[in-house]
Amino acid sequence: MTSTVPALDTRPAEGSALQAVFLDMDGTLVDTEGFWWDVEVEVFARLGHTLDESWRHVVVGGPMTRSAGFLIEATGADIGLADLSVLLNQGFEERIETALPLMPGATRLLAELAEHQVPTALVSASHRRIIDRVLASLGPQHFRLSVAGDEVARTKPHPEPYLRAAAGLGVDPTRCAVVEDTATGVASAEAAGCHVVAVPSVAPISPAARRTVVSSLEEVDLTFLRGLMTQMR
């Protein structure tokens, strides 16, 4: 699946201003934020370095270039960004081959959006090769398109990923709801003008204008998402 899949019928449901829903992947739909950190710890251990647990909050939710670059600089490891990215992606792929736990409420929410034909996009900082593997488990039929971190010039926290998704579906980003789990993703969605539901996975996120914070996807359904459009104008 690529970020250029043609949009289907993108008309909002009758009586609702909600035009589309955009969903982050790691830590939002799949419980894999911990996988990335574990892989980073293992890879750097092989390079002879120990990662400080406090760095986990720095790298969570960020693009590979930022996270890997930070860890190289912080540890002084003798490895280039390109080589490290390969090792991290390989390690992550090995982990999701054996287990891909979904976040509570993810399956139900995706099914509900599909049942009501709400245009839905997966928007992730992960690379395309990772997204396609995860989509095989989530069900690619649940998404009209997906946007990967290595398919945009500027990934999260820049608004480009969400603006790309809105353009691909032919919708107004200000009439879209985004579900994210990290401050990096929230910043990206808000910069694009979207209404945001934050479901923090590792670090806390505070409520703000056009941003609602919940503790679990179990609290999010279509009625909730439609309500954001009228409550937060």
* Overall morphology: globular
Gyration radius over CA = 17 Å
Instruction: Give the helices and strands as they follow along the chain.
Output: EHHHHHEHEHEHEEH
Low-confidence stretches are 1-15
Helix content: 40-55%
Counting structural domains, the number is: 2
**Using DSSP, what is the number of strands?**
6
The CATH class label of the largest domain is Alpha Beta
Average per-residue pLDDT, rounded, comes to 89
Q: Give the neighbour order of strands across the main sheet.
A: 3-2-1-4-5-6
By CATH, the topology of the largest domain is Rossmann fold
How would you describe the oligomerization state of the chains in this entry? single chain
Q: What's the architecture of the largest domain in CATH terms?
A: 3-Layer(aba) Sandwich
Q: What profile does the largest beta sheet have? A: 6 strands, parallel
Distance between the termini: 33 Å
User: Helices and strands: which structural class?
Assistant: alpha/beta
Question: Could you describe the 3D structure shown?
Answer:
With 233 residues, the protein is of the alpha/beta class. Helices cover 42% and strands 10% of the residues. The protein has nine helices and six strands; from the N terminus they run E-H-H-H-H-H-E-H-E-H-E-H-E-E-H. The protein is globular. The two termini are 33 Å apart. The N terminus is likely disordered.
